Inverse folding.
């Protein structure tokens, strides 16, 4: 039986096992999708050794960047983004060969274009992790001006949350790439000046569990539009399977 899965920590919020196992059952595919909680990426070689039938896996927080040294090959797009969320595993000569891809960019871009008006040209990204890199790549592909909001700004295009009251009115798109608000810590949310949001703001939360995050609730209360990350997640999941099943 073919094995697929997801690595990261924690994994209790992930929809991937249910989605793929239901897909396999419905389509009579002899495969199983498992959760592999992995606090330390250095556990990956052991997982590969103990799971010889592993054909592919997803990568989530906190390993989208620190998995890169463990890969034998990285797609051109994933290399440009600097993060991987999908890995295809083959076994030439009896040894695992790992190829990394980034399907977050595909899923986000597809979902975003269905959510925002075409006229939007400026965006704030909350967070600077692996998911933020895919989001930034997608926004740049749409010719948007992008600034990253970080608790500890280090790069030229990064700003701190304290600067937002003076800037937020000029950025109609705000994308939360942080895990704040993810189940079970659903009361958490990014520290924005929500009172300055208007009907001209669009809040895209990469979190999809719960369906409506506190970030989204507070945005809608101020009149802004808001959506969660489920459509993005579904898009990347479909792209993952396309990659895994390709010979």
């Amino acid at each position: 039986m073919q094995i697929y899965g997801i690595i990261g920590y924690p994994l209790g919020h992930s929809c991937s096992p249910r989605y793929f196992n239901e897909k396999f059952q419905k389509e009579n595919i002899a495969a199983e999708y498992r959760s592999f909680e992995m606090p330390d990426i250095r556990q990956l070689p052991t997982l590969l050794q103990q799971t010889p039938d592993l054909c592919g896996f997803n990568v989530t927080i906190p390993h989208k960047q620190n998995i890169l040294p463990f890969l034998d090959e990285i797609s051109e797009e994933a290399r440009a983004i600097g993060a991987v969320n999908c890995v295809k595993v083959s076994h030439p000569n009896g040894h695992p060969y790992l190829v990394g891809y980034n399907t977050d960019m595909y899923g986000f871009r597809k979902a975003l274009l269905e959510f925002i008006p075409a006229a939007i040209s400026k965006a704030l990204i909350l967070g600077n992790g692996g998911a933020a890199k895919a989001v930034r790549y997608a926004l740049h592909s749409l010719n948007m001006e992008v600034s990253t909001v970080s608790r500890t700004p280090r790069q030229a295009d990064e700003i701190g949350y304290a600067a937002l009251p003076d800037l937020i009115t000029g950025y109609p798109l705000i994308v939360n790439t942080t895990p704040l608000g993810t189940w079970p810590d659903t009361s958490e949310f990014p520290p924005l000046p929500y009172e300055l949001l208007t009907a001209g703001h669009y809040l895209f939360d990469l979190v999809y569990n719960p369906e409506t995050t506190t970030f989204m609730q507070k945005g809608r209360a101020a009149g802004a539009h808001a959506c969660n990350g489920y459509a993005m997640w579904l898009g990347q999941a479909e792209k993952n399977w396309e990659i895994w099943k390709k010979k």
